Amino acid sequence: DSGQRTADSEGGLSMVFQSRASGGSCSRMRNYKQFEIWKQGHALVLSVYGITGEFPQAERYGLVSQMRRAGVSVPANIAEGSGRPTSADFARFLSIALGSLSEVDYYVILARDLEYINATIASDLGSRIADLRRMMTKFRSTLVTG
Predict the structure, then answer these.
(1) Would you call 18 helix, strand, or coil by DSSP?
(2) 30, 45, 47, 116: which one has the fewest Cβ atoms less than 10 Å from its Cβ?
(3) Residue 50's Cα: distance from chain center in Å?
(4) For the chain, what is the radius of gyration of the CA atoms?
(5) Distance between CA atoms of 19 and 1, rounded to whole angstroms?
(6) How far apart are CA 20 and CA 24, in angstroms?
(7) Cβ(42)–Cβ(1) under 8 Å?
(8) What is the pTM of this model?
(9) How far apart are CA 111 and CA 49, in angstroms?
């Protein structure tokens, strides 16, 4: 595909890319801060930090650390992937970010079951995670299919 392509606002791609059939190289540098998926991922991390700050001290090196690490990995992998030279590379980093997002999803369930967060907070986070997963999956598919 040698033509211009854009993703809808759900994927957060606000720039036009030129892709080449030989690997999907992009002719313009991508600014990860403009992607809606990065913005939502960053907002999720801020929420995770706020919520885990209320967890028991005994979890500081356990669930708090794991949940924060997985949360940070989501927007960090989006940022790293956006700086890669090909769409295929970017898609690979989005796959890694999706794996980390699934980890956060599980940690939210665990925190709820351990009664570190209430069901309302868990439900809100779960909805935000599901929305972000849909956005990221859709955006990744535009990179792969061109």
Answers:
(1) strand
(2) 47
(3) 18
(4) 17
(5) 6
(6) 5
(7) no
(8) 0.81
(9) 13
Residue 92's alpha-carbon distances to 89, 95, 141, in angstroms, are 5, 5, 11
DSSP summary character for residue 27: S
Residue where the block lists tokens 């990860």: 32
Instruction: Count CB-CB contacts under 10 A for residue 143.
Output: 25
C-alpha–C-alpha distance, residues 56 and 59, integer Å: 6
What SS3 class is residue 31? coil
| pLDDT tens string 49-108 | 999 999 999 999 999 999 999 999 999 999 999 999 999 999 999 999 999 999 999 999
How far apart CA 43 and CA 40 sit, in angstroms, is: 5
Strand partners, 18: 4
As given in the structure block, the two tokens for residue 44 are: 């999720």
Q: Is the model's pLDDT at 27 over the cut of 90?
A: no
Coil/strand/helix, residue 132: helix
**3 three-state secondary structure:** coil
How far CA 6 is from CA of 27, 28, 47, 80, in Å, comes to 13, 13, 30, 20
69, 65, 82, 11: which is closest to 40 by C-alpha? 11
